[in-house]
């Protein structure tokens, strides 16, 4: 993976906001690779013409992959063991 393409997790906020009705950068994701739990806004993000990949900063495992193809979002979250989302009232 080329280091110059690496951004922080906030860079994925726009595409994730198009899919989820809340701020995904504040959600916590647990990596299936190493088990670390981290706020999505702090994860490593790689954005390409083919899509966006959110990776674990600890083990570099792909947590989330998103692509927009012909007005459809393709979302792969198999790298996330658990997604913790704060209740809006808290």
From TrEMBL:
Q: Which residues cross the membrane?
A: 26-46
- One Pfam family assigned to this protein is DUF6510
Superkingdom of origin organism: Bacteria
The record, for InterPro entries, names: DUF6510 (IPR045423)
Q: What are the protein's UniProt keywords?
A: Membrane, Transmembrane, Transmembrane helix
- The name of this protein is Uncharacterized protein
- Source organism per entry reads Tengunoibacter tsumagoiensis
């Amino acid at each position: 993976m080329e280091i110059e393409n690496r951004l922080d997790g906030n860079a994925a906020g726009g595409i994730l906001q198009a899919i989820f009705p809340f701020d995904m950068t504040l959600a916590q994701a647990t990596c299936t690779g190493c088990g670390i739990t981290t706020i999505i806004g702090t994860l490593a993000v790689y954005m390409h013409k083919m899509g966006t990949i959110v990776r674990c900063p600890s083990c570099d495992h792909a947590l989330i992959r998103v692509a927009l193809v012909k007005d459809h979002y393709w979302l792969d979250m198999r790298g996330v063991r658990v997604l913790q989302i704060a209740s809006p009232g808290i």
